[in-house]
Amino acid sequence: MARKISDSTVRRLSRYLRRLRNLDRQEVKVVSSRELAESTGTTAAQVRKDLSHFGSFGKRGHGYAVPELRVRLEEILGLTRRWRVAVLGVGKIGSALLGYGFFAQRGFDVVAAFDSDRTKIGWELSGVRVQPLSELEPTFVDREISIAIIATPVEAAQEVATRAVRAGARAILNFAPIKLHLSPDVAVREMDVTLELEGLCYMVTAAGSAAEDIE
Amino acid sequence: MARKISDSTVRRLSRYLRRLRNLDRQEVKVVSSRELAESTGTTAAQVRKDLSHFGSFGKRGHGYAVPELRVRLEEILGLTRRWRVAVLGVGKIGSALLGYGFFAQRGFDVVAAFDSDRTKIGWELSGVRVQPLSELEPTFVDREISIAIIATPVEAAQEVATRAVRAGARAILNFAPIKLHLSPDVAVREMDVTLELEGLCYMVTAAGSAAEDIE
């Protein structure tokens, strides 16, 4: 049976997987919960708890079998297949993303890029040709693109996101600092630098003062 | 008394604040919990719960007083002061960040940038001159920099983060896809695009299948 896992658990599973892939590449066969915890910034108890939901991958005191656990986490996270991605908006962020070498290695194929700026149309960035926004819909359909990365200015973000979803995108990674309004069955994550900076300011400001937990 | 608020609550407070600042700029005086919820992607009940921790900002049925709530959230998040930020690594991500106009508006002053590439030293990006990494320590001290944004290649991230912390940084925003090992009193947030993409894949894969909640 499939299970619904909280966002923070999913993030930890991704981190375990990142570590497991490195270990697997080095042909390490077994990893302890403590080792996994240390390299991902959590506790051994949390690792054991997270992994206990998905079956048994090791014997107490013997650690986890690296290749098996890697494959199982890839299955859980939906990473046994490749995903087709489009970048919407080829400004600084968009072109940084197109140049980011890790995507293909992690199973993400960036197969299209769009911009409204006519001077950018036809540019080729890391093998991807920049297309005009008018070609968004047919391109999403033809290339079976399921993930759209929004890297447009704020003003354009909602419109291009809506169009991408209508053309078949099922997930949106949003770099524009606004809340997108989309159908609830579309998966959305925000990458908002100032939101993270504000979180850091809170942590620095609150550190050292008498604390009472608020969930 | 200061209170320790969970990461997810802090993120929501930041989103409320973003909305409140916009409303305040438009001289809107009152906002309902429903309106705040809609523009930030949560529920009215969650808004009321989040804000109830910090005192009373409105009367039942009358909504919240915009300027008062804005100031209170700025106090809670530590945003009544300005923060000095350095960008470490001036590749694509680093230069995108230096060009990002919203920082100053939100209270963050980018006052330094560093790179190890000698051809980049002396470049001026959005008014900030790129300095060699050898000048990191004296610059952090002189300019009282408290936040370091790590935008170096993976291999360099741990070393520059350690140096920044030793030179006085109290918070790190990390764009390099590795877990940094730093003193526990340093605030750290990660910006990892592939981690977010993997989270989206999980959401898309799990959607539609019978779900049992796992926390």
Written account of the structure:
Two copies of one chain form a homodimer. Chain A is α/β, with parallel strands linked by helices and 215 residues long. Chain A folds into two domains: 7-77, Arc Repressor Mutant, subunit A; 83-195, NAD(P)-binding Rossmann-like Domain (Rossmann fold, 3-Layer(aba) Sandwich). The first copy, chain A, contains nine helices and twelve strands. In chain A, the strands form two sheets. Chain A has a seven-stranded mixed β-sheet, sandwiched between helices. In chain A, helix 1 (7-25) crosses helix 2 (33-40), helix 1 (7-25) runs antiparallel to helix 4 (66-77) and helix 2 (33-40) packs across helix 3. The mean pLDDT of chain A is 90. The interface between A and B is large, with 73 and 73 residues. Strand 12 (213-214) of chain A pairs parallel with strand 1 of chain B, so a sheet runs across the interface.
Concise overview:
The structure is a homodimer of 215-residue chains. Chain A has 215 residues and is α/β, with parallel strands linked by helices.
Q: Mind summarizing the main beta sheet of chain A? A: 7 strands, mixed
Radius of gyration of chain A: 20 Å
Q: Helix/strand/pairing class of chain A, anyone? A: alpha/beta
Largest interface (C-beta under 8 Å): A-B, 73 and 73 residues
Helical proportion of chain A, percent range:
40-55%
| Quaternary organisation | homodimer
Q: What would you give as the CATH superfamily of the largest domain in chain A?
A: NAD(P)-binding Rossmann-like Domain
Helix tally of chain A equals 9
Ends distance of chain A: 30 Å
If you consult CATH, what is the topology of the largest domain in chain A?
Rossmann fold
Largest sheet strand order of chain A: 7-8-6-5-9-10-11
CATH class descriptor name of the largest domain in chain A: Alpha Beta
List low-confidence stretches of chain A. Answer: none
N-to-C series of helices and strands of chain A: EHEHHEEHEHHEEEHEHEEHE
